């Protein structure tokens, strides 16, 4: 986000140490890009979200990839995200097991 200039949102997959960008959307209102309310979700649905990334000119794709790399959205992050997600899933699963056990034992 840039103050007063809106925000970009990125839809991407992290796999095998690489990001696959699916879509980059621009929002004039930065709050709309980050608001998790049902009203904001509804408002976003009515907006043009931009073309699929793979349909952009290759030079435009390369420029976006350079822009993202400059901001740390790179192969290091693409390796970190799945590992962190797996760790979080495992912690959530262990917590769930503890809660179910406590309920059953009660």
UniProtKB/TrEMBL annotation:
GO terms for biological process: cytosolic ribosome assembly. It holds the Pfam family MAM33. SUPFAM superfamilies: Mitochondrial glycoprotein MAM33-like (SSF54529). It comes from the Eukaryota. One of its GO terms (cellular component) is mitochondrial matrix. This is Regulatory protein suaprga1. It comes from Ceraceosorus bombacis.
């Amino acid at each position: 986000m840039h103050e007063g200039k809106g925000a970009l949102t990125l839809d991407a997959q992290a796999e095998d140490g690489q990001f696959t960008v699916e879509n980059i959307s621009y929002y004039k209102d930065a709050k709309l890009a980050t608001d998790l309310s049902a009203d904001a979700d509804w408002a976003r649905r009515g907006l043009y979200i931009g073309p699929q990334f793979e349909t952009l000119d290759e030079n435009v794709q390369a420029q976006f990839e350079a822009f993202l790399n400059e901001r740390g959205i790179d192969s290091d992050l693409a390796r970190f995200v799945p590992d962190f997600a797996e760790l979080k899933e495992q912690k959530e699963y262990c917590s769930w097991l503890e809660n179910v056990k406590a309920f059953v034992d009660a």
